[in-house]
Amino acid sequence: MKKVKWGILGAASIAVRKVIPGMQKGAHSEITAIASRDKKKAEEAARKLGIPKAYGSYEELLEDREIDAIYNPLPNHLHVPWSIKAAEAGKHVLCEKPLSLTVAEAKTLLRTRDRTGMKIGEAFMVKTHPQWLRTQEIIRSGGIGKLRSAMCIFSYSNRDPANVRHKVEWGGGGLMDIGCYPITMSRFIFAEEPIRVAGMLERDPDFGTDRLASAILEFPSGQSVFTCSTQTAYFQRMHFLGTAGRVEVEIPWNAPNDRPCKIFVADVMGTPKVEEFPVVDQYTIQGDEFSRAIRGEREAPVPLEDAIKNMAVIEAIFKAANSGKWEAPEKI
User: Fold this and answer.
1) Are 81 and 100 a contacting pair, CB within 8 Å?
2) Which residues, in sequence order, are CB contacts of 300 under 8 Å at separation 6+?
3) CA-CA to 5 of 20 to 30 Å: which in 37, 65, 147, 290?
4) Which CATH superfamily is domain 4-123 in?
């Protein structure tokens, strides 16, 4: 299969450090160009990463007829506007999470996809990682009995006022940045949508963004509970408890690309067995899977419909934190 030629909108840290190097190792993806509003920044990134073309504006990149697809790692408030522009320019789009700031905004992207015929998906790289596919397989096959509970902690420490994650108007805050992970993977593993959610947020007194967020998601089959924080010790772990055992994902989100990943599978008495996975780069897999979707070999790993449902849960948690009551996510 001919490789899909990709253009990168912006020189965001996630793109330069992880996504581009990962995709450059792919069998189906080729990074052809990068754009920044600061052309020197684009040229520097292109030189460092061996990218053939550098543009000084996003518009120039979208006008490049050689480009098949766009990866959009811009700040959250620019996800939908520039993804729409890319699709209207005839480019397929892989957009960073969270897809949008609201459900209503995300739905405009859905209409754009249907109108233009372009593939548009959300970049949750974890959904294509072997450790998560195996976790899904174990649980759906009844390997731990009936799934009843999911529990997650995801945290880091960053109080840099210049960081885009600390700008409320740009969709900053911990729930949007990292809380979206346990939400999407709870939905993925339960294979259900939450009936209702409860939430609690603590906001930074200077930035106004949520720096500590906790939520309960009630599914038809059980419950998921998570806490995420942007100003505590770095940690991540996710557990799934069933009636006959449990699964623990050791490094669920920032899976390393230089050493094996592990999950722990235990029986009802708690005796764990380790399953180890060969070294992979989840960004390589994500890029290739989306490229295959563009070529018609499969569906997008995280289609817009799924992304919008995830956004509905995020919205409901914000609403529950404000109301102090259980709230039902909008039905999509």
Assistant:
1) no
2) 119, 120, 121, 290, 293
3) 37
4) NAD(P)-binding Rossmann-like Domain (3.40.50.720)
* Residue 316: closest CA among 175, 209, 163, 105: 175
Tell me whether strands 147-157 and 196-203 are parallel, antiparallel or unpaired: unpaired
Secondary structure of the chain: what % helix, strand, coil (to 5)?
Answer: 40, 30, 35
127-284+311-323 CATH? 3.30.360.10
The dihedrals phi and psi of 154, each to the nearest 5 degrees, come to -145, 120
Instruction: Establish whether the linkage from the previous residue to 303 is cis, with ω within 30° of 0.
Output: no
Question: Residue 317: how many CA atoms within 13 Å on its side-chain side?
Answer: 31
Start and end residues for every CATH 3.40.50.720 domain found in the chain: 4-123
In the block, which residue shows the tokens 């990074």?
31
What angle (nearest 5°) sits at the alpha carbon of residue 59, between those of residues 101 and 95? 35
Give the helix/strand (H/E) hosting 239. Answer: strand 231-242
DSSP per-residue codes, 197-213 = EEEEEEE-TTT-SEEEE
pTM of structure? 0.96
How many Å apart are CA 26 and CA 78, to the nearest integer? Answer: 27
- H helix count then E strand count, the chain: 11, 14
Residue 233 φ/ψ, nearest 5 degrees? -60, 145
Give the residues across from 242 on adjacent strands. 147
CA distance 159 to 172: 12
pLDDT digits (tens, 9 = 90+) for 299-318: 999 999 999 999 999 999 99
Distance, CA of 286 to CA of 301 (rounded, Å): 8
> Please, which residues have CB within 8 angstroms of residue 265's CB and are 6 or more apart in sequence?
138, 143, 144, 245, 246, 247, 272, 273, 275
In the three-class reduction of DSSP (H, G, I as helix; E, B as strand; rest coil), residue 49 is classed as: helix
